[in-house]
Each structure stands twice: as C-alpha cells, then as structure tokens.
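Fold this complex.
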Amino acid sequence: MSHRIDPCRRAVARESGTGRAGARPRRTLLRAAALALPLLACGGGGQPPTELILASTTSTEDSGLLDVLLPAFARAHPEHRLKLVAVGTGQALTLGERGDADVLLVHAAAAEAAFVAAGHGLERRPVMHNEFVLLGPPEDPARAASTPHVAAALARVAAAEAPFVSRGDDSGTHKKELELWMAAGVEPPAGGWYLEVGQGMADALSVATERAAYVLADRATFLSMRGLLDLVIVVEGDERLFNPYGVIPVAGARNAAGARAFADWITGAEAQRLIGDFGVARWGAPLFVPDALPTTAG
Amino acid sequence: MSAGGGPARTGTGAERPDGPLLRAEELRHSYGGRTVLDLELLEVAAGEIVAVLGPNGAGKSTLFRLLLLLEAPDRGRILLGGRPLRSGDTAARRRLAGVFQRPWLFSGSVAMNVAFGLRARGVGAAERRARVAEALGWLGVAELAEAPVHTLSGGEAQRVALARALVLRPELLLLDEPTAGLDIAVRRSFREDVERAVRAHAGGAVLITHDAADAFAVADRVAVLEEGRLTQMGTPAALAAAPASTFVAAFTGQELLLHGTVETVDPDGLLRVLTSGGVRLLAPPPAAAEPPGTHAAEPPGAGAAVHVAYRPEDVALAAGHEEAPSSVVNRFPVRVAAVTPAGPLVRVRLEGPLPLVALLTRQSAERLALVPGAPAEARLKAAALRTFPA
Amino acid sequence: MLEILWRSLAVSGTAVLLGVLVGLPVGVAVGLGRFRGRQLAVALIHTGFALPPVVVGLLVYMVLSRAGPAGHLELLFSAPAMVLAQTLLAAPYVAGITLAAVQSVPTDVRLQARALGASSGRALWAHLREARLGLGAAVVAGFGAVISEVGAVMLVGGNIRGETRVLTTAIVLETRRGNFALALALGFLLLAIAFAVNLALTRIQQGGRHQPWAAASSERPWA
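Structure:
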C-alpha cells in the first residue's frame, strides 16, 4: 500500500508555477516533457497519509463558500492536505461508496441517509442549510406568487402550463425539484412547457431568463447571478425549500483521521461562524444558516 | 564483400573472363495467380549495357525489382559473377544499385542524397565527401552539391539520382526508364551522359525501358520483353534488320502495318497474303527468333491471320503509264490523296484497295507530278516486307 | 491563471508525448504493414478519433478508482491520471494521422533506399523522414485535440485547485459560478493556444515544397 507524497506534488506545483506565458510552443513542449518526469514519478511511496479528499457538490463550490472554508481548515489542520473534488451529488456519493473520497459534504438528505444506512458512511452530521427559492419572470403569468406554499405555486405553474426550467441533471437541486412536484401532485411532462436543460444551476438560470420561465434555484447562486438575470423570487421561506447540508466521513476511508477531523472542524465553532458570516458583506444577507451548534457563534 | 569500399570496376570485363557478369536463370514470378514474368535466361557480360525493351505491362518493373533483390522470385536464381544472390541479403544487394524511373530524391541537399548509399555502407565522412563530389562531377552536376533537391529541374534530378547510384561503383547498375520524365530535347544529351558514366563507373548495366530510342542509343544488346517473356535478343542492328514481332518492328522504324490472312505458303517459304482490302501480296515468312532463350511463335500456315509491315521509304511510286520492272512483285493501282512535306522528303498518302503511305524525295514527287487525285502505281518488293503473326 | 495555463500545457504536452510513443509506431505499422486484420485496425484507429473524452475519462476512472484494478496506484484525482486519460485520447489521433502521413509517401521511396543498399531499418527511416511533415502534423493535431478537452480531465482529475485544475475545467467552474467574464478570459487563453497550435499545423502543412520528382508528396490527406 503506497501513498501519494506531499513533497512530490509541491515540486510539480512549483515547477509548473515558474513558467512564463508567451513562450514559444517548442519550449512549451520541452517544458511539458520536463514536467512529465516528476509528475509520473509521483504516485508511489511509503509516507503516512496526509491527503484528504473531500467530495462535494458543484453548487457548494460554485457558491464560493468553500473558498473561505478550505483555507481555514488548512490553517487549523496543516497535517491534512485537503483536496476538493466538486461533482454532482450522485457522483459524490459514488466516489464515497468506491472509497475514492474520504469525506462528503452534500445536500441530499434522503440519499445521505441511505448511504449511511448501507454502511458506506460512518455518520451524517448536519452542517448548515441554505434555501431554495422558486424564481419566475417578473410578470408571473401563472400567478404563482399568490401563495406562500411552494407546492401550491408549482401546481399553478403546471395548471397554467407556464414554461418551467428543470436542471434535469440528477443534482441535489433537481432531486429537490422532483420532490416538490410530487408534493404538488403534478407529474411534469416530458417536453412541452417543462424544459429539462441537463446543465448546471447558472446555465439553467440563464435559460430561464431567456425563456421567461419559472425555475427552482438555490438562493446563493441566484444572489450571485442576480445582476445577469431577469427573474424574481416567486416563493421563499417555505420549509419545504430548505436545503440541508450534511458531512459524512466515509467508512473505511483511506484517510479516516482526516475525514473525522474535517467533520469535527466543519461542525465546530470556527467553521460555523464562517458559514454564518459568508455572503453578508457582499449581498447583505447570509447565504447559509449554520445548523451544527445550538446557537450560532459570533 | 564490401561493395562500398571496393574498387571501381572498369567495365572492361577483364576481371571476369570466366563468364557473364549477370546470369538470371528460369526467373518466374506471378502476382495473384497471374504469371507476370517467365524468363528462361538473361545474361549481361562484364562491361556490357543490356536494354530490356518492352511495352507497359510486359513485366519490366517486376524484372527490375527481382534483379535488385527487392523481391524474391517464385522460381529461378540470379547469379552475379557466378555467385548466386539471395533476396533479402543486404550484403548481396550492396553489390548492385538501382535507379528508379522517378528519381525519388530524399528531402535535403543533393550531397546528402548522393551520400545516402555510402552512409548505409558505413563509409566515413571524409571519404564520403570526396566520392560524392567525384560522382556529381561524372554527371556534370558538381556545382549542385549543396542545392536542396526541390530546387532541381527534372533533368538535374535524374543526374543526381544516377550519381547517387554510381557513387557506389556497383558491379551491376539497374536503370528503370531513366529518360521517361525528361523533355524530348534533353533526352539525347542525357542518354550520352548516362552511357558514358555507366560504362566508366559500373561493372555492367541493365537498362529497363519502353523507349526504343533509349535502348538503341545506349545498349550493346537489346532484349525484348513481351507479356513476361523475352521474345528477341540481339544487337540494335540485328533487331532493326529483322524484328521478330510487330512490337519490335514498331520500335525499329516508322513501319506501317497491313492486315491480312495467309492464303497459301509457297515451297520457297514465301507467303501469299490476302489483305483485308482484297489485295494479294507476296511476303516473306516471319523472321526466325534468335538467340536461344527467346520465344517466337511458329511460322503461320494457310489461314493464319498476319500483320504485314512495310516502311514508307520502301514504297516506290510510278506514274500510271510507266513500265514496271520485272523484279517488282507487288503492284497496286492507287490514287494520290494528299501530299505533305516531311522535312527534306515528301509524304504521300495513297488511296485505293490497299491504302499506303509513301515517302519520296522532293525531286521524285515533282517528276511524278503528284497532286491529289492523280493516279499512280505503288510497288513494294516482297523482300522489303516483314510478316508477323497477328 | 498562469499556473493553470502551465498545468494545462504540461498535462496535455506530456499526454501527447506519450501518445506519440504509442500512436506513432502503431500508425507506422498499420500504415505500412501487410497483415491480416489491417482494415480492422484502420477502422479502430479512426473510431478512436470519435472517442468521447468523457467516456475515456470514465474508463480511466473505473481503472484508477480505489475499487478498480489499479486503485492501489492511488493516481485518481492527480495529474498523472489526467495525463493517462489524455494519452488515450491523443494516441488515436497521432496513430491515424501518422498512418495517413506514411501512406502518402510512395512505397518506391523505401524500395529506392533499399536499391541503394540501405538496410530495412534505414529504408524505413528514409521513408519516415519524407513523411516528417505529416508526423509533425500528427503531434500538433494530437495536442490540439487534448488541450481543449474537458470531459476526461474533469472526471479523473477532479478539478482540484492548485493540483488538477486546468484551463478547460476552470472554464467550466467559472461558468457554473456565473463568473462569465473570467470564464471568457480563460476561454480566450485556450483559444490563443488553439490558434498557436493551428498556426503551427498550417505552417507545417504549407512548409512542404512541391517537388514532383522527389519523394515528398504534395497530397496531404489530413489537410
């Protein structure tokens, strides 16, 4: 059993960072060849595990929260080298299941419970939640804003056959959307007014603007893209729209200690404070609500 | 045997008095079940240039590749100086050198090209340089040594390709259609240079060509290859005097063909031929094949279809009223169709049961007052005709 | 951004070099060889042109995953994993264009070399030398194919900042984040590389001089 070596990686990173843009292609290839050797030589060795792979969702990465959290974790735990792999929720769970990730930070409550129940995860600890919002064109053709209940609002959209954009990518947001349609008692049709884009949140929001459609989005992405969109919040605050994030140390993780350390840290006082503060400066309101402590620190 | 470092063969033949330089025996080769080459014997004496003359598809390229040991024959063997050569034996191949129809110069300079074979033989740089310069000099292109090959004209490229082979001082040089890519205007001087250089710097040569002018100008002997077989072999003079097939005949002069059927064969061997125009001709039988090792068809009997060839200069014309000399056997009434100047001569196209073309001096034409529509009598001596099986 | 640029060049450059090590001999063997199944080999190589990067990435992922056959190497989510995936993508390009390049040089070139006393190896070398423009094109085209590829590197590299983030995955990330301006800037950087690559390719192709009697053919099937 071998492990990746830290110094090795640093050497590569240092090498690759010294380059100068605009060099001739020939030199580029030579440099690439020179870089190849250390790159390929790495990957074996007998050092203790220092690398910690966190599988999280693209929406988490996209919000920018992890840009704040990960450096803080690195400072708190320099002995672990955290690598973030941001993928879809389904893929994140698969990575955990196959042992390719050590710890998961995802937001798909039902799937997470099943993951732990199947023995792939040690436990699920609540970290935070953010909120989904139902967005729509300012004219609100389906008059969906007339109810505070998201299920009722969706039923109105379906009744009016107003265009609705779905992520359609099996992401956490998509799963949430399907859950809400079920609550509304509507089976969305394949095609017609129901547009499955099969893309990320930002793309889905762009499509919704172009087509003057309703769309379910996380507040963080909506806030960060608000200036680019011609969409308004139609329904918010319904408990059904809450989007809880949990942290799961993977059972039999390569870096079990690191996984535990990360789970402890992100549910601890410092991380919870960072989560509660995130976005306030920029958007005047927090994007996430910390859930791990009885009272939010700071 | 180190061909690369070996001494130049002078081509006098004195070094190998005991037999031919090259002897190819019973060479047979086929592709996909079709026999393309079936050669009983081909010999080249030391210092000799033998041309293999044949139309396209006669098996010339196959023979070229077999003799160069680039391909193994299905049957037969090739001996050089009495020693059998094995295909795929690089050392044996280095006693030979070949020049392809297209020069296939390698990208780079002329000198690099000429040095190619020397480099392959491990000749040192200094000797290489000296020999490359020398060989380019033989072909009169020494000043091109540093020129990139893409700047060469077609003729220069051919000379470089030849120098590239001769620099190796091969015991036997094989040339495939060396003038094919050249303008008519430069062919003659190129032929002369080829002959001179080859005689001086190769032990012997086989020149493969479909161009009789090449073969007759350069070669000591000409071997005619038709449909994979040697049909005739001899000196250019012997071939011209007695071509054994229409193919050879077409090469040996501006012969024109008449078509007919043998009616009877006279006791003295002369054929009585009825032409397709209904005219009777007396013609000699086909020439005997020579020497052994070549193939020729059996003499045609009664009923056989034959071609009868004549040369326009052998057609004598007489004005309609003139008395015919008794020695003239074939006489036909004709009418002048057209008169066109052909250099110092006049070419006369004749109409009648047997359409002919005659070549006369200008004086004769004037004396006979040949104008279109004028009647005349055409006379062809039987001895001036040649007959070939159709 | 510079760091990402260099990583892109290093990963794709290495992949192409390895792709050449694999693809060039294969292309030469299939292009010049006479063996049973040659047609099939040609078809397979050309199918390789159409290999979706994400499929290659998935296969490499399955192999390198901890649960996969090569899991013990622990290469997943690392630069070598990206190199491996891109090598698999580049090799068919290199092989296919090599194949066309060596076939565009007439067989007579090798025969002529042999007729001058060259060994088979030297004759083959002379042949490859005449095909060198095409071989250069094979390398450049292979590089162009992988530098702009995102599916495979995203999957097996994981787009880890400072480790496996390359231009294409960074573009995907910034687009998803709604940072269209940054994504576009990265896109232009990639475009600039693609432009340089194609400029090199064009120069290679225009570099061949017409020499009707010489070996280099004016026909370049990959053009």
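Chain B has eleven helices and 20 strands.
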